[in-house]
Amino acid sequence: LDIEPKFVDGLRVTDEQTMEVVKMVLVGKVNTELVGAMNRHGNIAVGLSGVDASTVVAEPYDEEHIYAGRVTSVDSTYIKDLLSSDYIPVIASVATSEDRKTFYNVNADAVAGEIAAAVGAHKIVFLSDVDGLYLDFNDKSSLISRMTLSEAEELAASGTLSKGMIPKISAIVKALTSGVPRAHLLNGTTPHALLLEMFTDQGVGTMIMPGEDDDTADDFETFPLGNLAAKLQE
Questions:
Q1: Quick check: 41 and 31 in contact, CB under 8 A?
Q2: What is the separation, in whole angstroms, between the first and last Cα of the chain?
Q3: pTM value surpassing 0.90
């Protein structure tokens, strides 16, 4: 539509015209395609956005990002209802305002972190086009396989992260400080990346955990499995 994208600190600058495109693309096209792809494996996925049931409420990020939102609250009721009925919610990162009159384009990483915290997720996984976090991005042998929350916070404060990685680390910090026991950064273009990360000792990306010796992610008494996850485990 000849609208030139503009980014500030990894966040898209969204005006009113861009907001209309965001709704059309994220809610109308991308969400529908993802849901359709998943439902080829059974009637398991339901598409929604943060606007549905006012699940995600946001406010303007700042004066420059008028239609770019910062999440202020997440009502997980609708999401939990879908999960309890064995559906997988596929959520487009469009939020509503407190008065329900305005739509906001919210960074998808930020929304993921807030929702993971709100539903008490076992893990939060970010798929990107890079393998994970590097000590030196130009040195591919410096991939960080594991790191702690405090190390991630130090990295976020160091000013060395790429613009696109800043929202992901911020979302990971939000999720882990809210009780989510594991976060993973993976290259979504790597075949079977999720399986390789979850079911091999070394993994293929970067795993972030609250502390060096924290093993609560595998404690299903602390984090009981939902219906769908239990069926998948069987």
A1: no
A2: 48
A3: no
pLDDT in tens, 146-157: 999 999 888 878
pLDDT digits (tens, 9 = 90+) for 137-147: 788 888 899 99
Three-state secondary structure of the chain = CCCCCCEECCEECCCHHHHHHHHHHHHHHHHHHHHHHHHCCCCCEEEEECCHHHCEEEEECCCCCCCEEEEEEECCHHHHHHHHCCCEEEEECEEECCCCCCEEEECHHHHHHHHHHHHCCCEEEEEECCCCCECCCCCHHHECCEEEHHHHHHHHHHCCCCCCHHHHHHHHHHHHHCCCCEEEEEECCCCCHHHHHHHCCCCCCEEEECCCCCCHHHCCCCCCCCHHHHHHHC
